Automatic annotation (TrEMBL):
Keywords: Hydrolase, Magnesium, Metal-binding. It comes from the Bacteria. It comes from Aquiflexum balticum DSM 16537. GO terms for biological process: inositol metabolic process; phosphatidylinositol phosphate biosynthetic process; signal transduction. CDD domains: IMPase. Its cofactor is Mg(2+). The lineage of its organism: Bacteria, Pseudomonadati, Bacteroidota, Cytophagia, Cytophagales. It is an enzyme of class 3 (hydrolase). It catalyses: a myo-inositol phosphate + H2O = myo-inositol + phosphate. SUPFAM superfamilies: Carbohydrate phosphatase (SSF56655). PROSITE patterns: IMP_1 (PS00629), IMP_2 (PS00630). Mg(2+) binds at residues 70, 86, 88-89, 214. Belongs to the inositol monophosphatase superfamily. InterPro entries: IMPase, Inositol_monoP_metal-BS, Inositol_monophosphatase-like, Inositol_monophosphatase_CS, Inositol_monophosphatase_SuhB. This is Inositol-1-monophosphatase.
Length: 264
């Protein structure tokens, strides 16, 4: 029988030590070392080294588990447990020295995410959750906001790097949200967008074209903080489905209706 609270403690240690490495590398980081994986899709040796450290650390916690990772350090084979890792979420912020970038680690048991850890490196905030046990930031329980409608809400989002075929629908959504809400923020890290919804610092978040490692940990943290996470059609295909809508629950229907109006 696996002691999940022990697994969580060890996962936090792995995330934080990768964070120490990333923070240290940032001090001497040279933008010339940046590589491009695709249009506006940047990566550095820091992402890759951090991922190796994380995979090595997590392999010791649950030997024989699978991995889904952004930089491809390890592969999945259909095992019972899968770690879903983004070693550095917010690479563009990191490269430019703009705060808000994080290590994100989710653990899936069969088809269900059961553990999430997101460690924000600049503000030393570690957000985490175990399924059914609530969500926390640095040991303190967190809860989603009480905003009752879009009119009282601050909305986070991410601009797509590609998939520009959907750009018009996306811009329509922004246009409407701009007029209806307190404002829109683009923080540069989907994992942190989700954690800030969980902590009540934003009331909702939506983005398309994300990958499982961007959202696995953060989505569990939102749900455990009392929020709601769906795709754009009220379904639950947000892990692999590349559409995510997260909110405090109270504004979810209104938010979703607005997206459905503009989305195909
Ligand atoms: C990115 C961030 C960003 C989102 C991008 C992601 P990365 O992840 O989460 O907020 O808008 O779509 O790819 O590349 O910094 O790990
Ligand atoms: Ca990336
Ligand atoms: Ca990411
Ligand atoms: Ca990344």
């Amino acid at each position: 029988m696996i002691d999940l609270s022990q697994v969580l403690k060890q996962t936090i240690e792995v995330a934080e030590s990768a964070g120490v490495f990333i923070r240290k590398e940032r001090q001497t980081f040279d933008v010339k070392s940046v590589e491009q994986k695709g249009l506006n899709d940047l990566v550095s040796y820091v992402d890759k080294e951090a991922e190796k450290m994380i995979v090595e650390g997590l392999s010791k916690i649950l030997p024989g588990s699978d991995f889904i990772t952004e930089e491809g350090t390890a592969q999945t084979e259909g095992k019972e447990f899968t770690w879903i890792i983004d070693p550095l979420d917010g690479t563009t912020n990191f490269i430019h020295g703009l705060p808000i970038f994080a290590v994100s680690i989710g653990l899936r048991h069969l088809d269900e995410i059961i553990l999430g850890v997101v460690y924000e490196i600049n503000f030393h905030e570690c957000f985490y959750a175990l399924k059914g046990k609530g969500a926390f930031c640095n040991g303190t329980p967190i809860k989603v906001s009480k905003a009752a409608n879009l009119g009282e809400s601050l909305i986070a989002t991410g601009f797509p790097y590609s998939a520009f075929n959907q750009i018009d629908a996306y811009l329509d959504a922004l246009k409407m949200l701009m007029q209806k809400t307190h404002g829109i923020r683009r923080l540069g890290s989907a994992a942190m967008d989700l954690c800030y919804v969980a902590a009540g610092r934003a009331d909702g978040f939506f983005e398309f074209n994300l990958k499982p490692y961007d959202v696995a940990a953060g989505a569990l943290i939102v749900k455990e903080a009392g929020g709601m996470v769906t795709d754009f059609r009220q379904g639950d295909d947000y892990l692999f489905g590349r559409e995510i809508l997260a909110s405090n629950g109270l504004i979810h229907q209104e938010f979703d209706a607005l997206l459905q109006d503009v989305w195909d």
